[in-house]
Amino acid sequence: MAEAHNDLVRLLDACVADDGLKKRFKADPRGVMAERGIEVPDGITFTVVEDTDACAHITLPKKTLGATSASSMAQGMGDYYRSLICWVLNMSVQQDALMKVFDACWADDGFKARLVADPRMALAEHGIDPPADLDFKIVENSDDRVHITLPRRAPDDLSDAELCEVAGGLYYSTIAKTGARSL
């Protein structure tokens, strides 16, 4: 899993640094991943979404057979699928709260509809207080569609150390390089 995840992280880092590659990746994610040696299973459509300073994407994972919760699923997912889960899952200090949001979506279609209609309100129901200046789009993975989120480009005036502090003290190379936001 680590190598597939690392290859995807390197691709996302490269997309943030290279607008031409980012444009090609958004247009043909399967082709660009194949170019980079990332194995792509047949029968899955990849959709690339991009976070901006004004908007972040939250990807609802598809519940796998036998999973009792989002946390248990994250531990037991196939290597490839797990590497493509929303960036928030890998970096957020509020990962547990977000997992509970996913659990609520799987258990309650009404909550899921509220999350899609008003993400800020639904997140607040689970103790997540996102930045006031950030809008959210909810996207959902399925058996045949996986969303890949490109992180936003970091402001040029912040150092790696400052970006680390913005990330709540958690250092992750992609946060430091791209300024990707987490909840």
Short structural summary:
The protein is of the alpha/beta class and 183 residues long.
How would you describe this structure to a colleague?
With 183 residues, the chain is an alpha/beta fold. The chain contains eleven helices and four strands, in the order αααββααααααββαα. The protein has a two-stranded parallel ribbon with strand order 1-4. A two-stranded parallel sheet has the order 2-3. The longest helix is centred in the N-terminal third of the chain and has 16 residues, at 2-17. The radius of gyration is 16 Å and the shape is globular. The two termini are 24 Å apart. The model is unreliable at 76-93 and 161-183 (pLDDT under 50).
Core attributes:
single chain, 183 residues, two-stranded parallel sheet, 11 helices, 4 strands, globular
Q: What are the SSEs and their pairings?
A:
Elements: H1 2-17, H2 19-27, H3 29-35, E1 45-50, E2 55-60, H4 70-76, H5 79-83, H6 87-91, H7 95-107, H8 109-117, H9 119-124, E3 135-140, E4 145-150, H10 160-166, H11 173-178
Parallel strand pairs: 1-4, 2-3
Helix pairs in contact: 1-2, 2-3, 7-8
Strand proportion: 5-15%
| Number of separate helices | 11
Rounded mean pLDDT is 74
pLDDT < 50 runs, ≥5 residues: 76-93, 161-183
Structural class: alpha/beta
Q: Summarize the main sheet.
A: 2 strands, parallel
